[in-house]
Specification:
Shape: globular
Strand content: under 5%
Amino acid sequence: MLHTGSGCDSFLLFTAFCAATLVAVWVPWFLGLIGLEMAFSPSSWHAHELLFGFMPVIVGGLLLTAAGNRTGRRPLAAWPLAALIAIWFVGRLGMAGSAALEPLAVALLALLFPVTLLAVAGRKCVPTENGRNLTILTVLAVLVGAQSLFHWEQWRFGRSVHGTSLAVAVLLTWTMLGGGIIPRLAGNWRKACVASPRHVRSTLINRVAMGLGLLALATWILREDGVLDERLTGALLLAAGLTQAVRLARWRPHRAPSGLSVFVLHVAHTFIPAGFLLAAWASLGGDTAFNTAALHAWTTGAVGSMTLAVMITLSAPAHTRHALTASRLTTGIHLAVAAAACARIAASLDPQHTMLLIPLAGALWIAAFLMFALVYGRNSA
């Protein structure tokens, strides 16, 4: 059984099982192997549960662990943590019973967890005025807004476009900001281990890449409104992809020590420029399949990989060389989620092999998070 003395261990393990279970349900439903009575299509439910069911748990885990370390306050544990998890399950039950409930009731049940988490985390973090904690709080607040928009669009139009896109955009922005920890991790590794080639820092490149990335994501969110010309949107997405690639190249990923968290963070970050370039192709070439591929490069690839990297970093012994190194199993975790992203992207571009690629992507994703639970859950046993 899990102990609740530390919110970190329990919440991260809970997160891993959430990620595995949600995909394990979605894959056979999407392929028509099982039938579920819901007011949502398989794709809409899948988007909602991963963006608004799974990711707030990740954000909550960071706020309840890293925030506790930075503020010096006791982490959430025992019954408050159990209550949060119970509220999360209430939201999942509301989504599962959506066919028998009013849309407003479903929305309120689903929003109960992130709103409660925002209130609890805000009480812990806002008084400290710590910039990193406030950034994570902002991400969670935008996710709450995006989820509200998702449910309104679902009720009004039968599908969500802007709510889903806004959630992807804020999570991707958070991931791009998180990429800045790569040079710091490399520096920590050099101090803890042996000499390593220095990473090149460029504030200008970082600012240009982030600025173009945010601008391109804004146009991507509005892509179906016809507000902007497709060629302009494609050009911004292309420029963002190229500058993100330059930003990554200046971190010299080919010189990152093999098997270290520095290297796997580089791998995770590679999906960011890949997603921008795929989205640019969709806008300039008019092929919507590339937009779906971009969506999964950003979510399964960039956000999923970075999520696991952060979870592993939080679970590793702090301030030691072991926090920067990776065992074979840990390396396997990162390879599995990266392979899952590649398979999901391939399924978007080659729908004729959906019956093969979707189960493959799902199995790899599930394996990655269950391996995390197996490897790092030992500390919580």
